[in-house]
Amino acid sequence: MKKLVVVEGFDRCGKDTLLDDLKNQDTNFYVYIEPLVDLPKYDKEQGDFLVWLNQFISRQVRELNKLFKTYDTVVMCRLVVSDEVYSTMFNREHTVVKYLSQIECDEICNYCMLFKDYDEYLKRLALIGDMNIQYDRTEFDRINELYINILSKFPSTIKYIYSDTSREDVVKHFKDYINKITQ
User: Mean pLDDT throughout 29-34?
Assistant: First the structure.
């Protein structure tokens, strides 16, 4: 059975760090990372962003289908859930859903990392030295609410992140999740 596991979640919660950590470990799955090159600002240049996103997702689908010829489980960052959340949040076209039927796997599972609350988000930004706050409390609550509502439609699990959640804890929790869904 071919499974695509998508690491979803809030900005700055550690998705890319998790995938980077996993890429350097011996695992029973492939970690697929597609770099974000020439990404337009989606809140300012929506037309350019949508063109870029369609090209990006199309390329990802081709790469995923190649990987599924070799691997039973592929892990990647962001796909349909994030697109649904941010398309709703910024009132733009839902793009990724158009490509789902082209992915040659049996199941898509989501592992979503969300901050426990807004204060943990602010503490995390301070810890990593990124106080360029993207979201106020109302926007933060709306994004978390959207993630939770959309995740309920798909096979998913949520890992709540505190500002001091260790990298090791996240990796261990994720590996336990993968072992559970691939047995």
Answer: 92
CB 105 within 8 A of CB 32: no
pLDDT score recorded for residue 15? 92
Q: Which residues contact 81 (CB under 8 A, 6 or more apart)?
A: 6, 8, 110, 112, 147, 150, 151, 154, 156
The closest alpha carbon to 130, from 11, 3, 43, belongs to 11
Q: Which two tokens stand for residue 91?
A: 């009132």
pLDDT value at 150 more than 70: yes
Q: Which helix (H) or strand (E) holds 75?
A: strand 73-77
Vertex 93, ends 91 and 95: CA angle to 5°?
Answer: 135
What is the phi/psi pair of residue 83, to 5°? -60, -40
Residue with token string 């030295």:
129
Q: Which domains does the chain have, with CATH numbers?
A: 3-182 (3.40.50.300)
C-alpha distances (whole Å) from 137 to each of 115, 120, 134, 140 are: 12, 11, 10, 5
Residue of 103, 33, 96, 30 lying closest to 61 (CA atoms): 103
* Residue type for position 120: E
